[in-house]
Design brief:
The complex is a heterodimer of chains A (406) and B (287). Chain A is α+β, with helices and mostly antiparallel strands. Helix content of chain A is 58%, strand content 17%. Classes of the chains: A alpha+beta (406), B alpha+beta (287).
Chain lengths: 406, 287
């Protein structure tokens, strides 16, 4: 009775595992994070640069990150991610952004606003602003402007500047580019407006930058991976179709080659698929296009474990063992083979995960999960079902097992 | 079937393919994508027919026409490859194209700075090197050192053949190609180990027969498995290759070449190296 108990425990643990995987997967369309290449979006890496005035240090990068975070929040995007990468790099991911290139331009702009007098002295910067809005405005002709409000300190400062410069020009620069150069008519306090924009959109974009503040150091875009929403949708549709067809072909092949055990392998392959997706969902991992490649590839490798076992069973059976003894010996002997073969693959996959960045890492992680899950399903689940079939005497002869004494 | 007996011939075939590949690598090299060289790729889709020349004249406004490769890909799709651009340039070029062709839709933009390419090259080399050392370590521990060398030989065989064919066909090499190479490394070893495992078992149970004969028997015992597994791995690869779209096509071609080379080398390269090693040792002993 003891082995029966053991078998029941095994069955229950497998069913519980399946339940947990399904739980993580429910509902399917929300459980798995899709990479930017699948859902569309943009990922940029920005690198902070030294200037004559400021050297990049930890503090500067931190402040730059918080400014970028504010900008991204102001854009109203869903689930943006701002991450530090190494010493002076910042990675920004924007899923589902509508106009990715423009978003990147806005994120990476230094946005240093400067007010200069006629002698070229900087008399005020964007820091004095408390709020800024893009709108149509102007005294005579309506044109795109930024209406800004000043902080209390800024208001005092601007009052003094305008008072001292009545009748003279104050030039306003954004990142060293001249926006406008109005002549001061009277003392201005509290609020004002800036002209010199090509469109309302441009004024609104710069207003957003002014609200979020300037970057403490300039950043340069060193990598940009952007996928438009259509291409992402096509990619997911195609790879799903390819995956399903690949999977069906493998199942047909296995049943053709190995008869009943082939069918068992197909069932454990289905179990494997649920398990891998469940682990991906549970780990909150992100599925990318190369990741799907890794998954589909691991289907082939998952089947390999079954092939090794079945070939071994055939071999043992041909050597004269009874069916039951051949199955036992087959699983036992195949175990070391599968272990050695998969550990070496796991070694390369984890090295890939360690050295690779971005999409290579995604590929390596899904491949590793796939390898571990495939060992588990082949060794535990396939065996369980085969034992069940043997117990029930479902197959009358050896033929259904595709075996012959040869 | 005497596979070990025809090992010299088969090793010769492999060597010939590898040498042709090496010559191609030395003369025309690899077609490196922007992931390695740095640069920009922008893909646009249109609802009407757009001539390459139209896009070229837009690039000319930015003084980039001489530095751009503009190609028609698929139905009404244009791909532009050029220098690595800054965000302002990207927005301006996209804006001009959309102004000229209102149906334009930006499908993809990739910009890679030159430093990223250099980092990728060095991390790819490191990854391959560390993987090779780790594998030699593991196989030496589980089997013997000479098995590790045999497996490494098969591995280099597969990687060199894949690199060589990519060079000959002029296929573009990108980040995904590196991932493919390392997958090939994993698969190649996996395949080799299954045969080695059987050799190890045979050697343990019979002391009398010569090593070459045991190795041959082990290869034949596992031959069905080698074939079946390469079929079950190739089926999904072929499915993605033909149905998965252009984005991962090169990745799948690399895997396809690597898998075929891997299956071949596990049978005709890995074990023959062991046998050669064994016979050299035997010769020394006799002298």
């Amino acid at each position: 009775m003891d082995w029966k108990k053991k078998r029941m425990t095994k069955l229950f643990s497998v069913l519980i595992l399946l339940g947990v995987a399904v739980f993580f997967l429910y509902p399917l369309d929300e459980s798995i994070n899709l990479g930017l290449d699948l859902q569309g979006g943009t990922q940029v890496v920005l690198e902070a640069r030294d200037t004559d005035a400021v050297q990049v240090d930890d503090d500067a990068v931190r402040r730059a990150m918080s400014v970028i975070q504010t900008r991204v929040d102001e854009m109203g995007l869903a689930e943006p991610i701002v991450q530090r990468q190494g010493e002076r790099r910042i990675m920004v991911s924007l899923p589902g952004v509508e106009d990715p290139n423009q978003a990147v331009q806005t994120i990476g702009q230094t946005a240093q606003l400067q007010f200069k007098d006629e002698d070229g002295n900087i008399v005020m910067t964007g820091e004095a602003l408390s709020d800024a809005r893009g709108a149509y405005g102007g005294d005579v002709v309506q044109r795109p402007v930024i209406q800004f409000e000043l902080t209390r300190e800024g208001s005092r400062q601007f009052g003094q500047i305008t008072r001292e410069n009545i009748g003279r020009r104050i030039s306003i620069y954004l990142d060293d580019e001249l926006l406008t150069s109005p002549t001061v008519q009277s003392e201005i306090r509290g609020e004002g407006q800036i002209t010199g924009f090509e469109s309302l959109e441009e004024a609104q974009r710069v207003a957003l930058l002014l609200r979020a503040g300037a970057l403490p150091v300039p950043v340069e875009m060193i990598e940009n991976r952007t996928v438009g929403p259509t291409l992402g949708a096509i990619a997911i549709d195609r790879s799903l179709k390819a995956g399903l067809i690949g999977l069906s072909l493998v199942i047909v092949f296995m049943i053709f080659m190995y008869k009943l055990p082939g069918l068992v392998a197909a069932i454990s392959l289905a179990f494997y698929s649920v398990l891998v997706l469940g682990i991906l969902a549970g780990l909150n991992a992100t599925l990318t296009l190369p990741g799907i490649g890794g998954l589909i590839l691991s289907i082939g490798m998952a089947v390999d474990a079954n092939v090794i076992i079945f070939e071994r069973i055939k071999y043992e059976y041909r050597a004269g063992k009874t069916l039951k003894a051949a199955v036992d010996a087959g699983f036992k002997r195949a175990f070391t083979t599968i272990l050695d073969a998969n550990i070496t693959t796991l070694i390369t996959a984890s090295i890939l995960a360690y050295f690779g960045t971005g999409m290579i890492r995604g590929f390596a992680i899904t491949l590793s999960i796939g390898i571990i899950a495939s060992m588990f399903t082949a060794i535990i689940v396939t065996r369980m079902i085969i034992n069940f079939v043997l117990d029930k005497n479902i197959m009358a002869g050896d033929k259904i097992f595709g075996l012959s004494r040869g | 079937m005497d596979i070990i007996g025809m090992r010299r011939k088969m090793l010769g075939v492999s060597l010939a393919i590898i040498i042709i590949g090496l010559i191609s690598l030395a003369t025309q090299g690899l077609n490196l994508g922007i992931d390695f060289t740095g640069g920009t790729i922008m893909d646009f889709a249109f609802e009407e027919v757009v001539e390459v020349e139209d896009i070229r004249s837009i690039m000319a406004e930015f003084d980039l026409d001489q530095r751009s490769v503009i190609q028609e890909v698929g139905d009404n799709e244009i791909s532009i490859r050029t220098d690595d651009l800054n965000p302002d340039q990207l927005v301006d070029i996209q804006g001009r194209i959309e102004e000229e062709f209102p149906s334009a839709e930006m499908l993809r933009t990739d910009v890679v700075g030159p430093t990223i390419g250099e980092e990728l090259k060095s991390s790819a080399l490191w990854a391959l090197l560390v993987a090779a050392i780790a594998i030699v370590g593991y196989i030496s521990y589980r089997f013997e050192f000479r098995f590790a060398i045999g497996a490494l030989g098969a591995l280099f065989h597969d990687v060199l053949i894949t690199l060589g064919i990519f060079s000959i066909l002029g296929l573009e090499v990108d980040v995904a190609f590196i991932a493919a190479l390392l997958t090939i490394v994993g698969y190649s070893i996996n395949d080799t180990i299954v045969i080695y495992d059987r050799i190890r078992e045979k050697v343990r149970f019979s002391k009398k027969e010569p090593f070459a004969q045991l190795a041959n028997a082990a290869i034949l015992d596992t031959l069905q498995r080698s074939i079946n597994t390469s079929i079950t791995t190739l089926l999904p690869i072929l499915a993605i290759l033909f149905l998965g779209g252009t984005t991962i096509q090169n990745f799948m071609i690399a895997l396809l070449i690597g898998m075929l080379a891997g299956t071949y080398s596990s049978i005709f390269v890995a074990s023959p190296i062991l046998v050669e090693w064994d016979e050299k040792k035997a010769m020394k002993r006799n002298i």
